[in-house]
Every structure is written in C-alpha cells, then in structure tokens.
C-alpha cells in the first residue's frame, strides 16, 4: 500500500505572495511586469507611463504622483542632463515641456512662443493656448537661461523624495510646487522641485536608504540588488572600516551619486561608479558638504570607536550594591542575576530600579508583579502566571 502525498501551493504567485489583487502569478506578476515597463519608459523618456500603484505601499503614493513621476522620467532619460533643446520648429507644448524639464530657459522659450503667435493663420483656440502657455512659463520657478542651471539627477531626486516623506512625518517638508495648468489644450504639468534636505538623525538616514532602495526599484531606476550592493560599499563598509559617522556616510552617499549623475561618461551608474575609485577626493567633498549642511554639529567620525560594551560618560563601571526601592519598575539585571549595565546606574553606582521579583501574578490588578525580595526564578507566589494580567 502506498501513500500518495499531494503538495498544494499555498499561494498563486510566488513573487508577490498574492499580496496584489488580481495577480495571475508567474511572469504576469505586476512586481515583474510593472517594473520592467517602468524601466523601459525611463530609458525612452516616455511621459505618462511610469506607475507605482501596485509596487509600493499606498502611504507613499502621494509622494510619487503623476507630475513627480513624469519629472523623474525626464531626469532619468539618457540625454536629459546634457542635451540642448532647440525650440525652432517645435510646438508650443514641446517648448513649454522643455522649460518644465530645465532644458530651455524662459527667455528663449518666450521668444519662441512669441514667434508662434506671429503666425496670422493661427486659430483663436490655438492662439489662446499659446498665450496661456506664455503666461504659465512666467510663473515657473527656475532659471532664465538654458545654460544657467544643471538639473538634479534622477537618483538624487528619489533621495529627496524619500527624505521629503520622512520629514513630512515631523511636519518639516521642504518642496516647491508650482501649478502651471493653463487650459485643457495647453500643457498641464506641475513643476515639482524637491529640495534635498539632509536627515536630522541616524534613524532618518537609515530609513532614507531603505526607501531609496524600494523607490528606485519600483520606478525602474535601479534594481534592488544593484542599489543594495552600492549602499553596502559606500555607506556600511565606510562606517565600519573608516569609523565614519552617519552624517559623513550620508554626505558621501550623496557625493558619489552626484559624481556619476554628472559624469561625462554615459556608462557611469550605481553598478560601476564604485570601481572607478577616487574616494579620497569624494571624502574631502563629503566632509565639506557635511560642514555646510550640519554646521558645528557635523562629525566626520564617530565620537569613539565601536565598543561592544559601551560605557556612559561620567557613570561608574560597577554597581555599588544598592537599589532604588521607590522606583516604579523592577530591575531586570537583579532578576536575571546578571551584571548591571551602566545605563541602569546613577552617577554614584546605585541601581535606578527596585530589586524585587518581577514575576507576573493574577488577581492583583493589571500588569501586577510578585514584588517579593527574591528573583523571579525563585518565585513561589500562589498566583504566579506567565503573562501580565489584563484587569
């Protein structure tokens, strides 16, 4: 007699684990198809295609609305940082979009639009649309000449977007948004420029790195394996080997990304910029940027080398045998018969907590503990239990 075992897959899709509604699984999973579509749109510079609805949690969708995604598409296009837009023979829509994307200065754009308005064969509707575009250009924040400013690159734009989200949680968003909608027949792109506001804490820095990996992968800018390898080498290896502070690591991260985004080599990318070397120059630039961003608070290195048993400055190394009976909490070290860490001691060596048994008991109120003069291992309280009482 043989026993037949039927193994049934618990999920339909082994990529998204059925987290995306309607996913058919296999190669049709949006995490595969949508990322590939987004990547192709970035390479081609096709506006209106990149989408992230099914790729990242909904709480981030407001950051990457359509104007932001279209701006990112332009910035990531291969020639967007160096190409010069020639307005001759272009439509008013193309001219307006060039101004939005920092490929054409306002003076040149206005002159081109005025030339279009000089055409006596224009319909009233077209003349109205061109005039509206001319007015819209006047309120776009930006440079006057097409040679006056170089656009930020796509990767730093994503970094800025991640930091914008992080700062928004503390109500410190810094962004310039000009609504340049003019009419149904004229361009309706909003100019989005997100200022790169440095993280203010170590936690914000590490959260930004995580969001950068997720955002860059979702929009097709950088595969997660490439961005993770880049961050490992630029951030974590430098923090470990050179004892860099998180502020120095942040500045180096930005400087190195800028180095390849503004490189004359079109093949420069996250995948190969590290192999090009030159870290001494990058480090000097990063240190200067740190002083500019953080002022007197900037530290290139950690205050002290990493210590597996760090001591708190000014506090004793050893417990003096005393506790604080009036404390509201029981001492963990006492109950576990372990050494008191410096963080649990006052300046004179007294434990900040009371030395009583912290075994939970029932029938004495919510979260009640034994409170006896013994450790919880030796507790023999008749109402002792393994979970805190709820009432």
* Extended strand count: 2
Shape: elongated
Distance between the termini: 56 Å
Helix content: 25-40%
Mean pLDDT figure: 77
Order of helices and strands: HHHHHHEEHHHHH
Query: What class, by secondary structure content?
Result: mainly alpha
Strand content: under 5%
What is the C-alpha radius of gyration, as a whole number of Å?
A: 30 Å
Strand order of the largest sheet: 1-2
Please, how many helices? Answer: 11
- Uncertain spans, ≥5 residues at pLDDT below 50? 78-82, 142-151, 171-192, 305-316
**Largest pleated sheet:** 2 strands, antiparallel
What is the fold's blueprint, element by element?
Elements: H1 30-44, H2 66-76, H3 92-100, H4 106-117, H5 124-138, H6 154-168, E1 175-178, E2 191-194, H7 202-218, H8 224-241, H9 246-261, H10 279-294, H11 332-336
Antiparallel strand pairs: 1-2
Structural account:
With about 400 residues, this protein is mostly helical. It has eleven helices and two strands; from the N terminus they run ααααααββααααα. The protein has helices at about 30-45, 65-75, 90-100, 105-115, 125-140, 155-170, 200-220, 225-240, 245-260, 280-295, 330-335; strands at about 175-180, 190-195. It has a two-stranded antiparallel sheet. It starts with about 30 loop residues before the first helix and ends in a 55-residue tail after the last helix.
């Amino acid at each position: 007699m043989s026993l037949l075992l039927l193994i049934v897959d618990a999920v339909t899709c082994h990529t998204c684990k059925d987290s995306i509604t309607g996913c058919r699984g296999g190669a049709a999973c949006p995490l595969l198809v949508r990322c590939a579509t987004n990547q192709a749109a970035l390479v081609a510079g096709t506006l209106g295609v990149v989408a992230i609805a099914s790729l990242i949690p909904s709480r981030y969708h407001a950051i990457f609305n359509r104007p932001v995604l279209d701006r990112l598409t332009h910035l990531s296009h291969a020639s967007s940082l160096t190409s010069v837009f020639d307005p001759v023979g272009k439509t008013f829509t193309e001219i307006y979009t060039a101004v939005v994307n920092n490929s054409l200065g306002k003076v040149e754009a206005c002159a081109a639009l005025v030339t279009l308005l000089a055409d006596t064969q224009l319909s009233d509707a077209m003349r109205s649309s061109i005039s509206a575009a001319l007015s819209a250009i006047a309120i776009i924040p930006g440079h006057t000449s097409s040679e006056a400013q170089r656009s930020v690159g796509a990767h730093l734009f994503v970094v800025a977007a991640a930091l914008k989200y992080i700062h928004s949680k503390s109500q410190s968003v810094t962004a310039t948004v000009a609504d340049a909608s003019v009419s149904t027949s004229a361009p309706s792109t909003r100019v989005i420029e997100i200022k790169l506001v440095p993280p203010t804490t170590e936690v914000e820095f590490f959260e930004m790195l995580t969001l950068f990996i997720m955002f860059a992968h979702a929009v097709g800018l950088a595969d997660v394996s490439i961005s993770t390898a880049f961050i490992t080498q630029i951030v974590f290896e430098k923090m470990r080997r050179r004892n860099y502070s998180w502020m120095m690591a942040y500045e180096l991260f930005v400087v190195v990304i800028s180095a390849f985004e503004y490189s004359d080599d079109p093949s420069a990318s996250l995948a190969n910029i590290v192999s090009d070397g030159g870290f001494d120059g990058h480090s000097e630039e990063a240190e200067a940027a740190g002083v500019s961003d953080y002022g007197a608070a900037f530290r290139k290195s950690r205050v002290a080398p990493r210590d597996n048993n760090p001591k708190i400055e000014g506090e004793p190394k050893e417990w003096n045998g005393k506790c604080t009976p009036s404390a509201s909490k029981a001492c963990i070290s006492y109950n576990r018969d372990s050494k008191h860490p410096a963080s649990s001691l006052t300046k004179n060596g007294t434990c900040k907590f009371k030395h009583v048994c912290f075994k939970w008991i029932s029938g004495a109120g919510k979260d009640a503990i034994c409170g006896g003069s013994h450790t919880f291992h030796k507790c023999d309280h008749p109402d002792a239990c393994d979970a805190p009482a709820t009432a």
